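SAMPLE LOG
Freezer: B-3
Tube label: C17
Construct: single chain, 269 aa
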Amino acid sequence: MRMVVDSNQLQSPRLRAFLQASTSNRAVLTDYSAMEALQGDAVKSICNAMKILGDYPEQVIVLRNTQLICQLSGRAAGLQRRLIHDGQTSGFPDYIRKIKEAERGHGALIGEILKMAVDARWQLERMLTDAADLAQIFDRLAIDFDKEERRKIRDGEFFTAKMVDTLIKAVMEVSMRLFRSHPRSPRVPVFRELHNTFIFRNSLCCYLLALEWIAIGGAKTAKNHKIRNDIVDSHFITYATYFDGLLTEDAKAFRIYKRAKEILVGAFG
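STRUCTURE (predicted):
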């Protein structure tokens, strides 16, 4: 099995048990795993975060960065393979070796980690700045669903066919706007490939998160850092839809993952 690993599971017994269970099992790491692992005391934090994976370095898959993945085709053939960074995956044992050397005080490697930490903090702070605007967008989505439909969302009930249709149309509209406004100018996909693109799937996951905010009264009253954290979670959830599941302790993230998979399978087969 290939499981996307949420940051909150990097030091968990569940991760170790998963990797121990079979040499064929793989832990899938995203760029957000590294970003979150570099917070605080960056060297100590990244060393602690990589300890379990360091015992199973041949069972780790490293994905390309999200900006690049947004540019990838949604062609069904080779879909999962295109997400994987072959060089960083094969080089993960050497990465672990460098992490251990930094932990022992290697100056140059410590400097590399500190530079990565600065970049990670900038990226996460930018997302925090965006959170306030996203809160308003989230609340505007409420008009697409009536009171009874919001109750179904809040209570975790299955979406009706009408709700799925409303959601898919909205996600298509949002994702097409994102394709046109993305700084890397990814090619706008043909319809049959749209649902396989990262931009579409992340739009779907963000929409599902938005619906949860709406169902409990709206996002405007939420703290920006909480919305930012949900946005980060949406990336882990999105990546998990391409693999065999999501290893997380966050009940909401897992619930959104299951909902996203159901909708993708139901709407696109």
